[in-house]
Amino acid sequence: MLYWLTEFADKITFLNVFRYLTVRTGGAMLTALVFVFLFGPAIINLLRLKQGKGQPIRDDGPKSHLVTKTGTPTMGGLMILSGLVVATVLWANPSNPYVWIVLGVTLGYGLVGFYDDYLKVTRQTHAGFSGRTRLAIELLIAIAAVSAIAMIGRPGLSTALALPFFKELVVDLGWMFVIFGAFIVVGSGNAVNLTDGLDGLAIGPVMIAAGCFGLFSYVVGNSVFSEYLQLHFVAGTGELAVLCGAVIGAGLGFLWFNAPPASIFMGDTGSLALGGLLGAVAVATKHEIVLAVVGGLFVLEAVSVIVQVVSFKLTGKRVFKMAPIHHHFEQLGWTEPQIVIRFWIISIVLALAGLSTLKLR
Question: What's this model's pTM, rounded to 2 decimal places?
Fold first, then answer.
């Protein structure tokens, strides 16, 4: 909404500052951070009061979790989403369609995750609602969002897949782009969800990825920078940097309360929403493949589960001591802070590899 103040810039010159994307991205980051800091304790107390026993802990998970995590409330994603929405609405350009499409995916996935968390808490079981139903809803939201992105995109590029490290090479997928893009969004949402198993584990890599895609959005949405870096220019996507900034700010605020030992868990409410956001931004900016690099940790977590399930069904043997893979390292004797910090380091290295695609063409 602050962007509208630029209409009066001819009378008050200072208001021109709200035209600058960098200023509004920084403002969104700070706003989300302060919002979560201020209202986080109240949200945590309310969730603790409403949930009673907190998030149910899986009996087949690490035994230490039954001692260290029992009674901790979940749905902490509400803190992140509230700060993100307030910051985005305040600082983003409300006339930009990409903002509302990505925000729609984020809130849609957040609602799916919220309902799943609600069922788990009220029934005191780790099983939420039907996995097939949940995936179907996620897929419908993703298809609607990717279709909208394709409709507003530039002809010849809107349904094309851009390949990193190549200047001009794109593969036009036609209507299959909607299916491909929806797979990216759904996969990203669920991969982040699988990563959210230890205090602070998911939110760190999410902020790192959001920082990368904030930069991608900024340069891809700028005709001068995109031409200089030989990227495909996608008009309007620069505004998504504001959302990514809001994710970083809200994530930092949440991490204050989620750092070991966590006062609150993110839950599916946050992990699905944030994963869906990253996937939608990647599709909008034509960096779907780069998401697999920057978010390589999420891919690793998801693949570890797939490998474990397939191996056990086919051979009756497990590849890992426990899946997702962060639990495997717990079983090997790594402490929770060791796993979290080392996985963050991996995320930083992968982010640097993803950022290298901006210049290596």
Answer: 0.93
